[in-house]
Each structure stands twice: as structure tokens, then as C-alpha cells.
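In pairs, describe these two lines:
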Amino acid sequence: MVALAEPFGASLTGRYSKEENVITLTTPEENLLRPWLIERIQTGAKTINYKALAEELDPDGSLGWNDGGRYKRLSHALYHIAHHEVERGRPVGLVALVINKLRGASGGGFATMARGLRFEVGESTAAENQFWELKLAEAIDYWAPRRSADGALTDAQFDTLMRKLTSIERMLRQLVHA
């Protein structure tokens, strides 16, 4: 199980059981946001920025996600979903679909969240971007349709497999030379 951390000042009170080490999603997180993100991957849609997501899923602000620009509650909801996915052995990158509008990629928040979930992420912006790209690709591979029409691996699946093999090879070399 993943140890709990609370990046961004998120309070998991009432949603987290230390005895079970399991996070429970709120109804909007479970029934609206998470399925929406999965469907976005399955339909081949691109990333989306916080503002566009908040306006689409919370146009009247009743969920607290569309708060006029800070998107603090939306960030918390994404953190809860990331934690939920990791606990269940699924890619954390599902929430990587939501990006910083100005950067056109993940802001530092994704890396901070991932570190809180015990992922190893380098401190440089380049390392954070590489981590974000990898985790987004893993989520796309996990949630996208499984095979191409001819039964072969998709390009994303092949790329993910090759990255994993390279990582395993690197670990084996370290063990042999340790």
C-alpha cells in the first residue's frame, strides 16, 4: 500500500482510514470526474487545462471545482483520484490529463503529488516533465482499447513495454554490479 501524504494542503479527513490505508472518493469524484477522465482517454481526446475542465464539469461552481481560477478543490479531487488509482494498482497518470494552461503540460503540482505518493521524481523541470509524459503514456496504454484491429500492440503499448524493459535491464545491471 502507498503511504498517505497530503500535498497542496489537502485534507483527507472523512475520506481516509489510517487503519485500512484506503481513500474513498466523494460521489462527484467517483461518479463524474474519474469516469470522465477515463472516457477522455478511451475516445482519444487530448489533455485539458484546469479552467476548461472546471467549466465543463462544474459550470455553476456547485461542486467547488470551478472557483474562478485557483482550482484548489479540483486539484484536491485529482489528488484523491490519483491516490485511489495507485492503491488499486492502476496508473497515476489518469490525472495527468489535466494540465497547466500556460505551460501546455503538467505544472509542478503533478510531480509534487507523485512524490507524496512515494514515486521517485527528479527535482529538475526536465525530470518532472519526463515523469509526467511517462505516467500519461502509461495511463493511455492502460485505459485505451487494448489492441489494434490486427491484434498487434499499439504504438503507445509498445513504447510503454520498451520503457519498462529498459528499466528492468537497468535494475538487473545494478544488481549484478553491486
